[in-house]
Design goal:
mini-chromosome maintenance (MCM) complex, chain A, domain 1; OB fold (Dihydrolipoamide Acetyltransferase, E2P); Rubrerythrin, domain 2; five-stranded mixed beta barrel; globular; binds zinc ion
């Protein structure tokens, strides 16, 4: 009985987000559901009653690799696969009466994903890679409109438009509801000028916390001594529960999706030059016990 209830809830949540579940989507939703039930249900129950709004749920990369549905999907379209996983996860939270939000943080990526930051180029775009780095936050926490909510001034129809980070905000071009209303009144005819009067409902938009950071590759020997720092400084961005928690000069293992971004100081909108942006998916403690961190943070500052 519960099975069918859960399915329908997941689909209605997916639909609410503007996603119509096709068969590939249904398979992925089902695979996540089984993965959480087998491995994380106790953790999900335990989180009940905590006051934080957003929690990261650490999911071992090996669990994804052992699943024949999730393995190819996660490695070819990680954002899409994770979004579906987060829908299932939060539906589980709802079932257990917890109103916090959980986000999947895949950790302990296999050796195939380990890479050198200094060798990173545009051709690695979209891949998920692991790096050992020294980080320093830049600019402090900020927010962005992840999903904008608009209302048609003529018919009060509301809808959401997903936005992209650090890009021009997407606004609606026409109101389909008004067109349908017009067609119903005018024997199926379309209005000559489609209705285009919209307000963005600032209070109802979905905002995400983010923070930018600089990352420099670090090589550490088995005794915990920093052997060398990388030559290049990369820009990274974190979201949700990581925001405001990053300590300048701390050493971490990060797992990041490689993205491209415009130059931070571009002086015209259509500038085609791009930089690599590390969209940091998860942050782990460094596997190395570092003994000379203070020296390294001094060196990091000198580089700036
Ligand atoms: Zn309208």
């Amino acid at each position: 009985m519960f099975e069918s209830l859960r399915h329908s809830q997941v689909y209605s949540m997916a639909r609410k987000r503007g996603i119509e579940p096709d068969s590939a989507m249904q398979e992925v939703l089902g695979a996540w559901r089984i993965l959480f039930e087998k491995n994380h249900i106790e953790e999900i129950k335990r989180l009940k009653g905590f006051e934080e709004r957003v929690f990261g749920l650490e999911v071992e990369h090996s669990l994804i690799c052992n699943d024949e549905v999730l393995k190819p999907e996660f490695h070819t379209r990680p954002d899409w696969t994770l979004e579906l996983g987060n829908i299932v996860l939060n539906e589980k939270m709802m079932i257990h009466g917890n109103d916090s939000r959980l986000v999947i943080r895949v950790v302990n990526f296999s050796k195939h994903h380990h890479f050198s930051l200094d060798e990173l180029r545009m051709r690695h775009r979209s891949t998920m890679l692991t790096f050992d780095v020294i980080i320093s936050p830049v600019g402090g926490p900020l927010g962005w409109i992840k999903k904008a909510v608009y209302e048609c001034i003529d018919c009060e129809h509301r809808f959401e438009i997903k936005q992209r980070l650090a890009r021009e905000r997407d606004a609606p071009h026409l109101c389909y509801n008004c067109i349908e209303i017009f067609a119903a009144k005018n024997k199926g005819k379309f209005p000559r000028i489609p209705p285009v009067n919209f307000d963005m409902l600032v209070e109802d938009c979905y905002y995400e916390d983010i923070e930018y950071l600089n990352a420099i590759e670090v090589a550490i020997d088995n005794d915990g001594n920093v052997l060398k720092l990388g030559g290049e400084k990369f820009l990274g961005v974190v979201n949700d529960e990581y925001v405001g928690t990053l300590v300048p000069g701390s050493i971490h293992r990060i797992n990041a999706r490689i993205a491209v971004d415009h130059l931070p100081n571009r002086d015209f909108v259509k500038d085609t030059r791009r930089i690599i942006l590390l969209k940091i998916h998860s942050i782990e403690n460094s596997p190395f016990k570092v003994s000379n961190v203070s020296e390294t943070s001094i060196e990091l500052n000198d580089n700036e």
